[in-house]
Design a protein that fits this description.
elongated, 105 residues, six-stranded antiparallel beta sheet, 46% strand, two-stranded antiparallel ribbon, 0% helix, mainly beta, SH3 type barrels
């Protein structure tokens, strides 16, 4: 089980986009993920009429390492660390370590 999943609200804690918030779109490998609106680059793209791709300069989200982000806790308004614990019914869930709040239902 991963600490950060697709669809989680995160906040960047280091790097050029420090302080930005976004939603995890997908994973690239084991520990890099693509976050909506974070780590944007301008890329020069050649046109490809066979695929219907226009040429020009496009903005694209690039992967960011998982060590540079933290899960955003909306109730406290801060980034918090994640832990795992077993519930009484035997389910393994994620929780915020500071507020002891369960993330997964």
């Amino acid at each position: 089980m991963k600490k950060i999943k697709k669809g989680d609200n995160i906040i960047v804690i280091s790097g050029k986009d420090k302080g930005k918030r976004g939603v995890v779109v997908s994973y690239e490998g084991d520990n890099k993920l693509i976050v909506e609106g974070v780590n944007l680059v301008r890329k020069h793209q050649k046109p490809n009429p066979n695929r219907g791709i226009e040429g020009g300069i496009i903005e694209k989200s690039m992967p960011i390492h998982s060590s540079n982000i933290a899960l955003f806790n909306s109730s406290t308004g801060k980034a918090e660390r994640i832990g795992f614990k077993l519930l009484a019914d035997g389910r393994k869930v994620r929780y915020f370590k500071l507020s002891n709040e369960v993330i997964d239902n």
